[in-house]
Specification:
single chain, 181 residues, alpha+beta, four-stranded mixed beta sheet, three-stranded mixed beta sheet, 6 helices, elongated
């Protein structure tokens, strides 16, 4: 499954000056800088580091700022272009920002994906836009009988649209199977 990408937002190169960084922030209106080096993703930098005066005239480029403050760069926050929509949703569950960079298998920056785009795709994937009945079934955690439950429903001529399983906590004896038909 391909994650939606807004390709019109290019990353900002390490060699960018303070003026170029401020122009990029003004143009994109994003809360984080997407930092690239020759097209490859380096990471994200909170825009507040720039707007609060941290990146001042003593730094001749974004690279010199990052060399002085490497801990400010988030390097693990991205989505791969071929990631499943569940992986993209998981990535956003760990991030506060509204966007994440999207990279290819060589870690080249492609564009961004927004939280809203991923949520819309996830809703479509789970058939949330279709009308139907949703039921929750408690099944024993140690014996997942999911296929048996689905088979019983479908032998009655009911078409199952979506099935999800909520993993139980360690101390719970049952997991929740949610079925939409």
């Amino acid at each position: 499954m391909t994650v939606l990408v807004e390709q019109h937002i290019a990353g900002i190169e390490l060699s960018a000056s303070l003026d170029e960084v401020n122009a990029w922030l003004e143009r994109t209106q994003m809360d984080s800088l997407v930092i690239t080096n020759k097209g490859r993703l380096i990471g994200l930098l909170d825009a507040q580091c720039i707007t609060d005066g941290g990146f001042g005239p003593e730094f001749d480029s974004l690279e010199s700022y990052i060399n002085a403050y490497p801990e400010e760069v988030q390097q693990g926050a991205y989505i791969c272009i071929n990631d499943h929509i569940f992986r993209a949703a998981e990535a956003f569950s760990y991030e506060l920002g509204d966007h994440l960079p999207v990279v290819d298998h060589e870690h080249s920056y492609i564009g961004i994906s927004t939280r809203n785009d991923v949520l819309e795709e996830l809703c479509e994937f789970l058939n949330m836009g279709q009308k139907g009945t949703v039921i929750d079934v408690q099944i024993p955690s140690e014996e997942p009988l999911i296929s048996e439950v689905i088979r019983l429903i479908e032998t009655e001529g009911i078409r199952v649209k979506t099935v999800t399983v909520q993993q139980p906590n360690i101390d719970e004896e049952h997991c929740t199977l949610t079925i939409k038909f």
